[in-house]
Design goal:
It comes from Methylobacterium oxalidis. The chain has 101 residues and is mainly alpha-helical. It is built from 3 helices and no strands. The protein has one domain (6-96).
Length: 101
């Protein structure tokens, strides 16, 4: 499988967009949860702690996803090339068996 296969780039872009979308979703969920729980945090004096803990979780989650995207970008030919190889093989077997491509 050549690293020049345009499917590798498309798969990498699709996965990167999905990963970034997941991170944005996590940020939005944390923001919504904090907003809704804000009165309870304030009443119990935990606002600062909850902001700190939430910031840590968001930072670590975001950093992990960015590191994953960077790693996938560096080794995309090997990672996606294997997927494409097996997808092509599956398509070939289905075609030989008279199934849909």
């Amino acid at each position: 499988m050549s690293h020049q296969d345009p499917r590798v780039g498309r798969m990498f872009r699709r996965d990167s967009i999905a990963a970034i979308g997941a991170v944005i979703t996590v940020w939005l969920i944390y923001a919504f949860t904090f907003w809704m729980m804000r009165p309870a945090f304030a009443a119990s004096g935990l606002t600062g702690i909850m902001i700190g803990l939430g910031a840590c979780v968001l930072f670590l989650n975001t950093a992990a996803v960015l590191a994953m995207i960077r790693h996938y970008g560096e080794d995309r030919a090997a990672i996606y090339g294997t997927d494409i190889y097996y997808l092509d093989r599956l398509r070939q077997v289905r075609r030989e068996q008279g199934g849909q491509p």
